[in-house]
Amino acid sequence: MARYLGKETTRVDGIAKVTGKAKYAAEFQVPHVAYGFVVLSTVAKGRITAIDTREAEQAAGVVRVFTHRNAGRLGKAPAADAAPQWAWPLQSDRVFFNGQPIALVVAESYEQARYAARLVKASYQAEPHATELESVLDNAKPASDNTPPRGDPAKALQVAAVKVNAEYHIPINHHNPIEPHAAIAFWEGNKLTVFDKTQNVYGVQKHLAEGLGVPAEDIRVVSPFVGGAFGSSLKPNYYPSLTAMAARELKRPVKLVLTRTQMFTGHGYRPQTIQKVRLGADANGKLQAIIQEAFHNTSSFETFSDNTTGFLKQVYACENLDMPLKVAATDLATPTWMRAPGAVSGMFALESAMDELAYALKMDPMELRLVNYAEVDPVSGKPFSSKALRECYRLGAEKFGWKNRKPEPRSMRDGKLLVGWGMASSVWGAMQMPASAKITFRPDGTATVSSATSDIGPGTYTVMTMIAAEFLGLKLDQVTFELGDTRQPQAPAQGGSWTTSSVGSAVRGAALTITAKLLDLANRDAGSPLRGVSADDVEMLDGRLRLKSDTSRGVDIAELMRSTGTSEITEVYKSTPSPERDKYASLAHGAQFVEVKVDPELGTVKVTRVIEITACGKILNPLASHSQEIGGVVWGIGMALEEATEVDHRTGRVMTANLQHYHVPVNADIHAIETVFVEEDDTIVNPLGVKGMGELGMVGIPAAIANAVYHATGKRIRSLPITPEKLL
């Protein structure tokens, strides 16, 4: 009987967060620190012909103004014949996007640095730029993660009885976490310490080693708390290297915090996406062909792909399928991963098209999905390690009251409001990465557990504490879990919804190894009540090592450690995915049912009710898990109805670079949300049986909302966000 796993557990770091004890990157106190403020370019492409820093340098408190002319070297010097690149800040006079850093002002106070930054004057030789995806589609190149088509989709489409042909658009979206990006860097001799807002301390360490020409082991990156990131801190951003370079040049600590506006070109974004979907089905709704061509933008100096259609190929049983992704270079900063990357964009198009097909067939949208249900993985032909999606559909429809839906658009009302019901499916990979964790167990019944993972908000501190307490037989307050420091054992970036499966498996492994070591100690004594039993037969609980099948047989752990002169036991354990996984396809699934109410005179849309059913293996902490799924739904509402980064294509400048103009959901936008889990018993996916859920909760929501809006209004909006003017 599990004591913690599967039970609602409040955050172990909750009190630290609400009392201000939790330290975020910019909050570490470092003596004699100077403050940096970045100056950004105002053209999208070209070169800097002159940069005048004299007035800024004479301003009060200014220590130095760094530009490409006097900045320390970052990265290797480019080869003479190499194409111009932007890999490191302040390394050349070239400008690749509007909002690229062109100077760093360092002063004695933040206010002085910010004021002096306004006094830096740059002149440019501008070149023609292109920031609109539509204008560069002809230059799009296939993404590296494309797989060949299945069957002969073009031919199958020709002969299909019922067809859908539609194009879907998604604008650029930005992450906008509460905590702005920040770093503090200081050198002690040749050794560097950086406090950074990151989802991957080891990734930043490697990046800084390359940039600064310093061995990685001489660089310590620390990031114990992250105030939201959603992918914006997965790749190392430009500001830690800039901060570390300035600190080295000035021989004193430097702190750099980006403003909200600077974050709009400081860390990537969800790329702009155009998708052309063609579906063909027979008269009974069985899919004959799926062709989904996806295009999204990348930057001119780096190819990025968010794998828009990757997971989509595994969703429906269809013999003829082609889902190519092409990326096109624009004169903008490089996009990056953003919660549910690729999948939420791809599923918006696919699940909207499936809804269009259901209307063309005069068929219930859920029935259409059941007709095309994939019993095995359509890509590999392998069985699923577990798949409870059918149960998600059934339970969701029942809870939502789906059977009472009138199929005709505009047929349901609440007073003068039009009522719409829509649904969609969601999918995400159930991944596990190699990860390590260290446990030190002491005779007084306390343990310290550490791994260099992150906690960007999902509750990593809590779930790792729960796993350690469960397998060491301790109470939660006897376990201290530490993360976010390159002095700890290596862990993967916190992204992709793989943290619990990866790091959690390492914590479990370390705890079980300590159990086995204690058994070895006990069995040195010929009279031990546990002689002859194997490590799998025993467990630790409340200070005793005991036989699972007969709990009266056991030894006192503190006494055992004392008598054998063992002051503590430390174990570092590396967990890796089991070879057994290769025989199966592992995915997490879900179904979303959404009700909207639309004011026909104003075109305003309210999402009044959402039922989201999720199948993602075992739920270790239901309290945190429901919170994750609700957060995913809220963000899905934002993506569907509000979020859009507007670019002025004449200048290539982001116009909505603040929270006044970049709209995100607020309390008034959110009504009833119910999240339900269908637990799966999956022993193949990892030893804990968990699948990721952080991304999954968002995947189907924008499509379900768009489908509900069509049901309410009879208007099919194929470009997000669905704003009032599109409905009027």
Automatic annotation (TrEMBL):
It holds the Pfam family Ald_Xan_dh_C. Gene3D superfamilies: Aldehyde oxidase/xanthine dehydrogenase, a/b hammerhead (3.90.1170.50), Aldehyde oxidase/xanthine dehydrogenase, molybdopterin binding domain (3.30.365.10). It comes from the Bacteria. GO terms for molecular function: iron ion binding; oxidoreductase activity. InterPro entries: Ald_Oxase/Xan_DH_a/b, Ald_Oxase/Xan_DH_a/b_sf, Ald_Oxase/xanthine_DH-like, AldOxase/xan_DH_MoCoBD1, AldOxase/xan_DH_MoCoBD2, AldOxase/xan_DH_Mopterin-bd_sf. Residues 19-128 form the Aldehyde oxidase/xanthine dehydrogenase a/b hammerhead domain. PANTHER family: DEHYDROGENASE (PTHR11908:SF153), XANTHINE DEHYDROGENASE (PTHR11908). This is Xanthine dehydrogenase family protein molybdopterin-binding subunit. It comes from Comamonas piscis.
